[in-house]
Amino acid sequence: MRVSTGLAEASLQSETALEAIAPRARLLSASQVVRRLCRMALLFLAARMLGVATFGSYALLLTIVEMVALISGVGYMEFLTREVAKRPGLSRPLGVRVTFLRMTYIVPGLGLALLAMAAMHFSSTVVVNAALLAITLVPRAAGESAQGILKGLRRFAPLLAIELTQGVLVVGAAAAFIQLGFGLRGVIFAEIVSATAGAVIALLSVASGETAPREEAPQVRTLIRSTFAFNIYPFIVNVYDRVDVVLLAKLAGAAATGIYALPYRAYGTLNIIPYGVMGALLPAMSASPMGQMQRDACSRAMKFLLLVAFMIVLVTLTFAGPAVWLLLGESYAGSAQTIRILIWAGVPMFLNFALSTLLLAAHKEKVFVWTASICTAFNIAANLILIPRYSFLAAAAVTVATESLLLAMNLYLVGRLLGQLVLPKEGWKIISVFILVLGLYWVLRNQISQVWAGSAACLVYTVFALRTASGMRVFKALFGQSDAR
Question: What is the DSSP letter of 363?
C-alpha cells in the first residue's frame, strides 16, 4: 500500500510540476491570448467606428448576453474538464448531455433577460439587438462543451486553432459590415458568424481524436443536481462582475458606459495568465484525491501569478495614459483614469483564480455560490451608492474592493475546508519589494517624466522577478522550449 501511494504521489508531483504543465499552459495561454487580443481588436474597432454612445450600447448588449450565457452553463466547460480527466470514456456521451442541458436553459434565461430590460425601460431597439446577439449562444453551447472535453483529455493544441478562426472572422466581418453601413447590427452579425465557425472546428476536433472505451453518462436529472453550482455560481459572479455596466448605462448614460467598457474589457483580458496556468493544472489536480501535492502546486503557481500581477500594475500605471490617447483619442480620456484604478483588482483576481481552481479540484465548488452571493450584494450596493456621484471611476474602485473581498473569503475557505492555509511562496518578500519599487516610482515621477520613472521602476522589478529562484524556473518552464501535443 505504501509503495502504491508513493508511486501515486510521484506521478501527481510530476503532473503538477511547472515544467510538466508548461507545454499545456503555453498552448492554453496562447489560445486565450489570441481570443482576448481579437476581442480587444474588435472593441477598439467598434469604439472608433461606432462612436462613444453607440459603443456604449454594444457594451451593454455584450453584458446582457454574457449573463444569459453564464446562467445557461458556461461553467460546464470546467465541469467537463474535471470529469473527463478522471474518466475519459465519458467524453462524448457526457458532452452531448451537457450541451442538451445547456440548450434547455438558454431560452428561458434569454426570456427573463429581455423582460428585465423592458422593465428597466430600455428601448425596443436595444431589446431586439440583445435578442439577435443571443443567437450566438446556440453554437457557443456546443463549442464550449467540445473545448471542455479537449482540455479534460489534455488535447490543448486545437484550442488555438478554434480561437484564431473565431477571432479573425469576427474582426474581419465586423469591419466589413460596418463599412457597408450596417453599424451595430453589422457587429452582431459578425459575432454570429464567428461563434458558428468556432463551434464547427471544436466539434470536428473532438470527433477526430482517439477516445477511451465509452462509458455511460449520468441521467439528465442526476446531471442537473450535480452541475447546479456551475449554473448559479458563474451567473452570480457575472452579476457582480458586470452589473456595473448595466448600472452605468441607467445611472450615468451610454457615454460613461463606453468610457468604462474598454478599460474593463482590457482588465478582463488579463485573466488569460492565471487561466492558462491554472487551467493546465486543473486536470492533474483533479485526477487524484486532494493532498499536500495539490496545495504545494497551487502555492507555487500563486507565487508566479503574484509576480506577474505586480508587474502588470507597474506597466499600466506607466503607459495607460499614452496608450489610450494614441489608440482612442481625447474623447476617451476618462478611460486612462479608469484603467489605472481597475488594474489594482488584477492582484487579488490572479490569486483568486488559483484558490478557486484548488477548491474546484477538491469538489468544493458549492461554496462558490455563497462567496459570489456576498460579493454580488456588496458590489451592487456600493455601485448604487457611488455611481451617481463618481460615475465610471466609482465602478472601477468598487471592482477592486469586490475582488479583495473575494480573496479574503477564498483564503479563509481554503484554510478551513482543506485544513491548511495556502499562500504564495515567499509572498511577503514579493510584496515588500513591490512596495519599495512603487515608492521609487512615485519619487522619480516628481523629478522626471512619468514614462521614464515608470520604465525605471519596471526594469528594477523585472530584475527582481527574474532573479527570484522559483520565478526564474517558472519563467523558463512557461516560455522555454519543450514539446507539446
Answer: T
